[in-house]
């Protein structure tokens, strides 16, 4: 390993790349990691000098608060390569702001903007070979922060670790998914942490989702915890409903993640003259629309899955099938988003961020 | 380090005890750990052979699901020593059942009963010197399970680690605490994971609790997330209200941890002929009782704090002070519980479990 210093980040390069051992045509999401990772510790009240080093296991005390109290947040973003080998991020400022919003809610110190961007860009330059060009290919980036202080009292830690790890990816849900509208379990409450990418929000969904999967549904669309009458979002995607030619999506609140893909689709819809209502949407409204033929599409929107068409939903023991037309909004938005992300279409809103 | 095998647990003893470096008169909760820890990994669909080894840091992949999705649960229990050097646990079957209930909700495989008890008892025998006799002294035991699989897809892991770490303790809140009744933030929702000792439930409370602390209140008493009208529990304690000579505590449900101390106090109250109502208790009722002088006590009940008297509460910007009488129920229950736990009083319900 050779040690060099660049941009104040302390860099230790991997002696040999693992890239030749990876079959890029057969990638399972989130299982293979690139050669390097970014690490920055918070100690003595401040973020210390960041480091990039070979990806690998780390040493941590069993009493670290992250294990006991779930004091941890994360982000999910992607890097894309165009056919000229140029590398782009998509609206990374949104992820930067969101991780700090999540951190604030979890009593974790905010991370400096310059470290976040220098870390990402330096890492991407080192591991650029892992980003394959072509629509559908990307490098999934996972910034996250964990409470490392070795003390099991139930209060905020004084030491933390911020990391970025990178995993080459194809899109997450390759087939259309079937969903259940939640009627018993719930994801978050008003005044809770649902709007944050707090680690515990995700583990809490595994069991109900497993139950849904046993019945043939891959995902749950969460409803409000009080009444289960209003549709909110899926486990890792915001949700859009197309009724007639109009889109509807739930508003942001305490309980819903303010998704970057969601807000981009709302903007693209406006660009294309597609009406999009951001408002509460009830289970009853969607069932009625399904029955009278007005419900044309449901799709999920998120960085991992991009746009994921939903082929059926279940509620009260009844399954409602969707038509899955070829000229769906889901397809239009997906190809527009991928086109912008891969530098194949005009970026009218300045969403692409080139890594140079 | 010498390697021996006992009861199927693989034991590696510490070459030298750290106990002489510890000042038992000045213990901060959860910062000092004993010489050994218990470790058992779940792999290939089953719990592997357990191990006891010197307490120390462990190696884990940065992509381990616990860091990203908070798939983790824990327990809190204590070991006590009487003046003859006999060591006792208090209702450990309750903790065993509860950790598996928490695990089930978090899609974590349940842990075998024999491993749990053999692990605890073997560890306690090895580290028995760390348990000091005398009321107020104890060894806090922290069993916990974390998802270790190195893969960042949002679904249950296939590998886990169950551990027990031990920390010598005095009682947690030494002084009476002041609390705020929650009006904005919330701890859990119906259909959520509030009843489980899931890691993420705790980290989510840190920020609101920090805000309360800035205003001079150490803890929050959570209310129902929907209306904030009903009092539920504190961050690590169940709550009892004494109105006149009657006790009231909230019923268990999806949102509240089914505390061992709480259920023991309900039993002791019945033994002593103290009326205890287990029912919803509203903020308004407690404020009214405070105003008309009927509210005699509020106290928290939990393993760490045992019984913790509350000296004041705040709601709607107004502070209500409690009288803190010498003959309080809080004191009676605390000394009865400690008496049973330390083998100084009759154990009429068979709650003590001797470690032999
Ligand atoms: C709960 C939840 N909702 C929605 C999303 C989609 O957000 P984004 O489009 O920013 O990836 C995600 C994934 O990040 C998520 O975790
Ligand atoms: C949320 C919560 N409530 C109540 C309690 C008290 O439970 P127990 O008496 O079993 O320690 C605890 C602590 O374990 C807790 O974490």
Automatic annotation (TrEMBL), chains A, B:
Annotated catalysed reactions: L-leucine + 2-oxoglutarate = 4-methyl-2-oxopentanoate + L-glutamate; L-isoleucine + 2-oxoglutarate = (S)-3-methyl-2-oxopentanoate + L-glutamate; L-valine + 2-oxoglutarate = 3-methyl-2-oxobutanoate + L-glutamate
Origin: domain of life: Bacteria
Cofactor(s) the record lists: pyridoxal 5'-phosphate
Classification via PROSITE patterns: AA_TRANSFER_CLASS_4
Gene Ontology molecular function, alphabetical: branched-chain-amino-acid transaminase activity
Pathway the protein contributes to: Amino-acid biosynthesis; L-leucine biosynthesis; L-leucine from 3-methyl-2-oxobutanoate: step 4/4; Amino-acid biosynthesis; L-isoleucine biosynthesis; L-isoleucine from 2-oxobutanoate: step 4/4; Amino-acid biosynthesis; L-valine biosynthesis; L-valine from pyruvate: step 4/4
Enzyme superclass (EC): transferase
Entry's EC annotation: 2.6.1.42
Pfam families: Aminotran_4
Keywords: Amino-acid biosynthesis, Aminotransferase, Branched-chain amino acid biosynthesis, Pyridoxal phosphate, Transferase
InterPro entries attached to this UniProt entry: Aminotrans_IV, Aminotrans_IV_CS, Aminotransferase-like, B_amino_transII, BCAT-like_C, BCAT-like_N, BCAT_family
Family: Belongs to the class-IV pyridoxal-phosphate-dependent aminotransferase family.
Job of this protein: Acts on leucine, isoleucine and valine.
Name assigned to this protein: Branched-chain-amino-acid aminotransferase
Organism: Winogradskyella maritima
